[in-house]
Amino acid sequence: MGVATLFILPDYPQTAKFLSERERDAIINRLSEDAPTKASKTWDSDQVRRLLTDPTFYTFNFVWLCHAIGGLGLTYVLPTVIFQLGMYSSWLPQHPILIAYRLFLLSHEQCARNATIFGYIHCS
């Protein structure tokens, strides 16, 4: 399937054989300025500079990093560490998950009582 996709899936809207001219023009007009085209160069230093000066890039990466460490770390790494410490109980790795769940319930109770979370997010 992957090999077939390599030959069937078009790289750019300009080379898609299944699009009519009207559809192709509509798709190209909707693309952003930074979208790659068949005639564009492969490396644009100005585009990299704009990316590295955009605060959204760092915010997104921070959120992804926290998700990767928090989610995947607790799921895959913590059981291995606990096993290597000589603890063989299957419910022991669940403690961080249970603590996070309890904190979630506590924040829900706080929201229900005061109609706000941490004093600045309004709950409806």
Structure description:
This protein is mainly alpha-helical. It is built from 5 helices and 2 strands, in the order H-H-H-H-H-E-E. The protein has a two-stranded antiparallel sheet with strand order 1-2. Strand 1 and strand 2 form a beta hairpin. It is elongated. The model has no long low-confidence stretch (mean pLDDT 76).
Task: Give the SSE layout.
Elements: H1 2-8, H2 21-30, H3 45-52, H4 55-84, H5 95-114, E1 116-117, E2 121-122
Explain briefly what this protein structure is.
The protein has 124 residues and is mostly helical. 60% of the residues lie in helices and 3% in strands. The protein has five helices and two strands; from the N terminus they run H-H-H-H-H-E-E.
Shape: elongated
Mean pLDDT: 76
- What order do the SSEs take from the amino end to the carboxyl end, as H and E? HHHHHEE
Number of helices: 5
Number of strands: 2
List the uncertain runs: none
Features:
two-stranded antiparallel sheet, 124 residues, 2 strands, elongated, 5 helices, mainly alpha, single chain, 3% strand
